[in-house]
């Protein structure tokens, strides 16, 4: 097997697919090998906790990466041998002109032995949970953030019995204003989800057909399955082995090059400078994966494009949905502009008199307007924001 190539991509997610497509737009014939640790070819990840539960067909999420005329090697995990050469568990050693690390992240685990917990992230996780739900399983979901709130809502709409455990007072409390977070608590309860806020999990033990979850306050709950959505850690082990600079992800320059000019990084794992926000950040959402992968691929193929995109993210929670752009924290200066309280409106997040984030709650088609506010120089009068964006 010939393992010499012009382009080597490590990773098999959305970023990797976007990069491969961008390379092929500029270089139709350069040999490209993609190494993915997953058993499945690249797919859209967001539907795993969103639209697949609402009837979207599974076939619709595949990215059809193989049609690009590349060598896609699944179940293949890249490692570094001799301190510089990439190899895999199948005995192959790879050499390339340009390397992209699109290694994404790995789920953050609970701080104790937890062999029966499903850390929801991959297609395999979705298939497992979907089969359990179809068999009328009950679930405990640990975490009240992005993934936890999505999968709990999806399971409840599917008809499953769901209990949520999370340390904050309300769902999404780390980014949402207190009133909105409390409103979500009531909406989840109204839809049959049992909530245990302000609780931490101390143990998960499988006993026969059930799994018991114990909280630090001494409560014990039982369910057929336990799902944890408590965030991810950037997968930087390969980058470290290659001697690249790592700090909350792989450090990249404006062209998405690492500290070695022939190695690029993009997607969840890349730490880049945001010109709109004025500091480095790492973003774990679909828009960033696709846009950053595209720029990385084009630059690998000879372009010199600056990555200055301000990515957005979105979520679906029962009959509520939102799009958001920028950065968010519940301790920012928050201006709430509701058309209908907690059901439709815009929330602005300010720091030092500047808009740093915009949450568009059931408000659509205003991402570019939000980006414009965040990128605008100078301070803003907080009250002038009311009515600024509507949809």
Task: Walk me through the structure.
Helices cover 20% and strands 32% of the residues. The protein starts with a strand and ends in a 16-residue tail after the last helix. The chain has three domains: 4-45 and 62-106 and 232-300, FAD/NAD(P)-binding domain; 109-228, FAD/NAD(P)-binding domain; 319-385, Enolase-like, domain 1, CATH 3.30.390. The chain is globular. 40% of the residues are buried. Strands 1, 2, 3, 4, 5, 6 and 18 form a seven-stranded mixed beta sheet that branches. β23 (333-340) and β24 (344-351) form a beta hairpin. The protein has seven helices and 25 strands. With 391 residues, it is α/β, with parallel strands linked by helices.
Number of domains: 3
Number of helices: 7
CA radius of gyration: 22 Å
Look at the helices and sheets and give the structural class.
alpha/beta
CATH class of the largest domain: Alpha Beta
- Residue share in helix: 10-25%
